Every structure is written in structure tokens, then in C-alpha cells.
Fold each of these.
Amino acid sequence: MIKATDSGVIEEAWLSGLADSAAEETKQWYALYTRSRHEKIVACELNKRGIENFLPLRKLKRHWSDRTKTIEDPLFHGYLFTRIPIKEKFAVLNTCGAVSFVHFGPNLPAVIPDRDIAALRRFTAEELPMDPFPYLSEGQRVCVRSGVFKGVEGYLVRKNQQCRLVISLDVLMQSISIELDSSEIEPV
């Protein structure tokens, strides 16, 4: 609602303009959808431009008829994360291989919480075996109470009689899972 004062000043429009410009200056994490198999190319181009980004990779062993090789494969195929003020979104989208930001509303990219990016960074830094996991919207929420991942929250599932912690990225509708000892987790 716009309110004009006796002096003819439109207060709320001016204040909302300030809020909008402050939001445009704040760096936030966004999920960027890329062309198929272009995740590393887009990450490299963004690095050249000085744009902060994060491409979570996992190490896989690939077997060919004559050799076995360890490769780094994107954890979420077709996606990477970029931390920018929203006003720089067109600079990111002009990168070769970038398609669009993940968004829920018209032209408003969905923000990824810092805690989700921090959890992904911790998992990839430890180089533990990780698997993409079907997205979970329901399940028991748990928190790791000891060890390297102390404080990380996720969902508890079982896979081949092993306890697994699943971290879900709601914006991408994707999840990852890691194997943990059941004594290291507690309900939230």
C-alpha cells in the first residue's frame, strides 16, 4: 500500500525501493541449471569471471576393457551452485552452457540456504562415498551428534542394513546419502 503524506512524499514506495536494492546487493546461493554434461565447463567459466560457485563432485571408479580409472563426476547432474547478488543473474546466465536458475515464481530464482551448501562442502571435502538418493519429503529428521559431521541434519534411512544420513536439497528436489554409524545420530 502506498501512503502519501501531507507533504506529498510517498513513504512506502521509497522504503520498499530501499529494501529491494538491499536485497539485490546481498549475495545468496542459487542453483543453476546447465546443459547436459556442461557442469565443469560452466564452473570453469564462472571462475574465470570471478563469480563464486560450487560444483559438488564425487569420485567414481570407472572400468573399461583395458583399464580402471577414478573420475570426478558431478553429484547433481545438470546443476551447480553460484553465490551472487541477484542483480548479477544475467552475467551468470550469459555463461556458455548455463541454461537457467531453478525458480518457483516468475523470474525469481530460489535461494539455497547457506547451511545446505556448508553441509555439501563438508561431505565433498571428506571424500566419503556418496550416492545420489531419491528426494525425500517425509521421514525422521536426525542430527549427527559426534564425529566429523557433528551438527549436520538430515533424514535417516536404511540401505543394505546400513544406517545412512540423507541430506535433501528442497530447491533441486535432489538428495545425497552417506553411511554413518547409528550411534552417531540422534532425533531432532
Note: Confidence is low (pLDDT under 50) at residues 1-19.
Amino acid sequence: MDVITRLGAVLFNKLRGFSEKEILHALYNSYKIPNSTVIDIDGTISGKNVSIGHHSYINNGYRIVSGPNTKVVIGNYCAIGRFFSIASITHDKQRPTRSDDFDNHLRLERDTLLGNGVWVGDKVTIIPGVSIGNYSIIGANSVVTKDVLPFEIVGGVPAKKIGINFSHHKHPNNNQPAK
């Protein structure tokens, strides 16, 4: 048996009986994910400043990246589709890569926040510094480059306002009882 196969067998035996959340916590060890939250194991969390609220779920293919000085916060009761990307760090346009003149590149860091009860469609990208308001909806295949107000529905590249979610049971203009 080669070294890789043996290592895989040891890891499998060590991890058997642990939940996906326990394995993720062991790997990343500093983010905050409550037991009521469901996250597919097929995704990436980078950075130590990631917080995900209660009763949220994130489907497969996600990418969540926080910077060393900034955070990514996902609120309670969020429904997030497949291939979702959110970050609080990116390349700075002034010096986005290394060159002969510089050994390092500049980074831009801004907190990125997703409110409570947000519904995010498949293949959505939220860039650093954006705040998504409570109970808003982000349409599939969107790139969110600006803040989204509470109850707002946005979509497109870049995401633009499509409407307001007046039908949400928490919207102040909805006088209908929740079904």
C-alpha cells in the first residue's frame, strides 16, 4: 500500500463517526456555525473571520473568503444556492499582481454582510464591501456590486433592482397572515 493510500485510510478511520460540521470545524477551527445551520461539505471556507447564522443553509460549490482584517457574516434563516461566492478580500486595482517592480500585490479588504432571511439563487457572486439587507432576494447568476436594501429583489450582472418583496410576511406593507 503506498503512502497516500495509507494516509487516506488513516484519515478515513479517524474521521468516521464525525459529522460534516465537526470535520469542517476541525479543518477551519475558528469560524462560527451553529448546529441548526446546514452546509454542504463540497465547498471552501477561507479565513478566520467567517460567521454563519442559525437555520441557514448553503448548497454545494460555495466559496466564502474573509480577509485577516475583515469579516464575512451570513445571517440567520438564509437560503443560499449552489456555486455561491462571497468574499471580504480581493486584489487592489492599483497593484493586483506581483511584477518585476514589486514582490507582493495589494489587497482590498471590506466587511461583507448578508442579512437575515436572505434568499440567494445559484451562481451568485457578492463582492467585498457589499451589505445585503434582511429578507432580500438575489436572482440566480447575479454579481452583486452594490448594497441591497431590505426586502429588495435584485438580479443581473451587475445586479440591479427588479422589485420589492412586498409579499414577505415580515414586510411592513403586507397585511396578509402567513400561510
Note: DSSP finds two helices and 18 strands in the chain.
